[in-house]
Amino acid sequence: MLSFFPTLYPDELLYSTLARYHIRSGNKSFKQTDLELFGYSSQQVCKVTLTNSLNYLVKNFPLRSQQTVDNLLQNHTLYPFYATFLIPQEAWLLKDSMSKKLSGSILEVAKVATGSSGESKNFLKFCPECLEEDTQQYGEPYWHRTHQVPGILVCPTHGVVLCDSCVAVESKGIHYYAASVDNCLVITDVKNFTNQALRTLLTLTSDINLLIHSNFTFKGLAWLRTQYQHYLVNKGLLQIFPGGKFKFDEYAFSKLIFDFYGQESLEALNPKLTQHQGKYFSHCLLGCDLNPAIDRITHVLMVKFLANSIEAFFQ
User: Of the candidates 251, 302, 252, 296, which has an alpha carbon nearest to the alpha carbon of residue 276?
Assistant: First the structure.
């Protein structure tokens, strides 16, 4: 049992607290910290955002700790984001996999579409203004959970573009790096967006946060495809004929969605979205139930474009 464990800050990523524990423990190796926290040392990829073995960790907390596995999952990991677009049984499996010691790939359980629209982040992100405010209020900066959510490029609190730190998200080696002025370097050539693109990205941030904190029950990818077809027919972009044949106006669809979001915003989220005249959008739109991986950000973009409301679409 641990003799101490740092108090989690508001919206702090669990990995951030584990890294702060590593510093306070005085351990010379990350492996030793891993052994103390989880009882074994793991090189699980993506342990930074989808930390597993939470049952052991919580039982290992100091005696008077009121911390629960559910609170860690819901408020300090990216579980709520990856649980979106999963049916209840799949979401339960992801929660169960994060609670236990996992031997397989957590990314496969979460159906992560690696290399697609912001789903695979190279480095932990930070907001320069949050960094300064956290240091003043708590005496140290920390990694915010919200800043690590795929598709969120702008801080929802300050409306400024998030910066890349020097800490890699996906690494096979064990590491616990707390946020600091040394690994959160504010660069001067950070991406500057036009006001319109910035507003679009801020709206997307709100939509993603709404989805994360909602209680919508996802009914499956086949249902999602049917919903898409319904909205496309209403917009005059899709004609369905007897026998399952259909005619899709891909050019008109691409033009409308590009006009809706703006090329600058789409390229910032993922250059693939603007390549080949929007064919990637069409692929996700009409073949979403055929792909085992889920590109959540692209689906959020399409839901908002088609229904103009996340709530209206899922309700």
Answer: 251
- In contact, 285 and 296? CB cutoff 8 Å: no
Query: How far apart are the C-alpha atoms of 12 and 186, rounded to whole Å?
Result: 20
Round to whole Å and give the CA distance between 225 and 204.
21
- Cα separation of 282 and 285, whole Å? 5
State the DSSP string of 55-85: HHHHHTS-TT----HHHHHHHHSSHHHHHTT
Helices (H), the chain: 14-25, 30-38, 54-59, 69-76, 79-83, 88-99, 106-109, 128-138, 195-212, 221-234, 250-261, 263-269, 279-287, 296-307, 310-314
* Dihedral over alpha carbons 45, 121, 219, 240 (to 10 degrees): -130
What is the per-residue pLDDT for 46? 62
Output the pLDDT for position 174: 85
Claim: this prediction has a pTM higher than 0.90? yes
> Residue 303 corresponds to which tokens in the numbers above?
């839901």
Mean pLDDT by runs of 10 across the 315 residues of the chain is: 94 97 95 92 75 94 92 97 96 95 84 62 91 97 97 96 91 87 82 92 96 91 92 93 86 93 94 83 78 89 95 90
Of 147, 90, 98, 89, whose CA–CA distance to 123 is shortest? 147
Hey, what are 49's tokens? Answer: 């955002």
Supply φ then ψ for residue 206, to 5 degrees.
Answer: -65, -40
Question: If you ran DSSP here, which 8-state letter would residue 183 be given?
Answer: T
Alpha carbons 225 and 286: distance in angstroms, whole number: 6
d(C-alpha 197, C-alpha 261), whole Å: 8
Calpha distance 184→164 (Å, rounded): 7
CA 43 to chain centre: 21
Long-range contacts of 63-72 (CB under 8 A, 24+ apart): 63/1, 65/5, 67/5, 67/8, 69/99, 72/14
